[in-house]
Structures are given as structure tokens and as C-alpha cells.
Write a structure and sequence with these properties.
The chain has three helices and seven strands. 27% of the residues lie in helices and 36% in strands. By secondary structure, the protein is α+β, with helices and mostly antiparallel strands. Helix 2 links the parallel strand 4 and strand 5. It has a seven-stranded mixed sheet, with helices on both faces. The two termini are 27 Å apart.
């Protein structure tokens, strides 16, 4: 998988369309969750895109401290369904952590993790903090990596 990191202005129209389509496919359709994905925050984010043979197969968006949480953060983490057993989730997460360290000079990162992914995120150095909560009807928990 080839990974690119771009700010909003660097995305071309096709890339923007593909990432919004993939986010909708995973978070709205596959997870059967009606929510406002286009939330006005994409313009402030770093977009981490994972490509395989010209097709977007993995994605995250990252924020500097203060833009989403008090800490730098990673969100909208996804891998296209047919590519999930290839380790791409780990690759895109590592690339996102590195992008935050490189672009924002930050080590502390906060995420809002779906609870079934706690072990996955723990493998990347995140630790749970606080109580579980519902976000858009899906169980989540805050996690921080220092």
C-alpha cells in the first residue's frame, strides 16, 4: 500500500470524492449509522490516504492539538472491507502517528475508539481513559497515546 499525507488544499477533486465516498461506505452504510460525516472539519485536517493499485483502500484524518480535542488526534480510521486482513489498518495508523509527530511536532494523541478496537489501538501505544460512551449510537472509549 502506498501512503500519502495531504492537507485539504492539496487534495484534488477525485481524491476528495473518493475519501468521502469511502467514509460513507464504511461509517454510514456498512455500520448502519446515520450521522453527519461531512462536519466542516476536513478543511483543518491532514488526510492520510492509503492506495492500492490506484484505489483508495485505507484512510484517516488527523488534527493538531486544539482543532478537535485538546490533544492532537486521529479520526475516521478505516480500511475498505475487502482489504482488512492485510495489515493495512496497522500501516495507516502508524503513518497517522508519524504524520502527527512530523507535521504537528506532537507526541500526545487522543482518539475516540470504537470499543471493539481497544486491543488494536493498545498495540499502537494507546491507553483507555475514562468511561465508555455512545457516539452516534456506537460504543466508544477515549484513548490516549503519550
Amino acid at each position: 500500500m502506498e501512503i500519502e499525507v495531504k492537507n485539504f488544499e492539496e487534495l484534488n477533486i477525485t481524491e476528495l470524492y473518493e475519501l468521502l465516498q469511502l467514509r460513507s461506505e464504511v461509517f454510514v452504510v456498512e455500520q448502519d449509522c446515520v450521522y453527519q460525516d461531512i462536519d466542516g472539519k476536513d478543511e483543518r485536517a491532514l488526510h492520510v490516504l492509503g492506495w492500492e493499485d490506484g484505489k483508495l483502500v485505507a484512510y484517516t484524518r488527523c488534527f493538531k492539538a486544539g482543532d478537535y480535542f485538546d490533544e492532537a488526534s486521529i479520526g475516521r480510521v478505516l480500511v475498505r472491507e475487502n482489504y482488512r486482513k492485510l495489515g493495512y489498518g496497522h500501516e495507516i495508523t502508524k503513518a497517522s502517528i508519524n504524520a502527527i509527530k512530523t507535521k504537528y511536532k506532537a507526541d500526545k494523541i487522543k482518539i475516540s475508539a470504537q470499543t471493539y478496537l481497544v486491543i488494536f489501538y493498545e498495540s499502537h501505544g494507546f491507553k483507555t481513559t475514562g468511561d465508555r460512551y455512545l457516539e452516534d449510537g456506537i460504543p466508544h472509549i477515549a484513548m490516549v497515546r503519550v
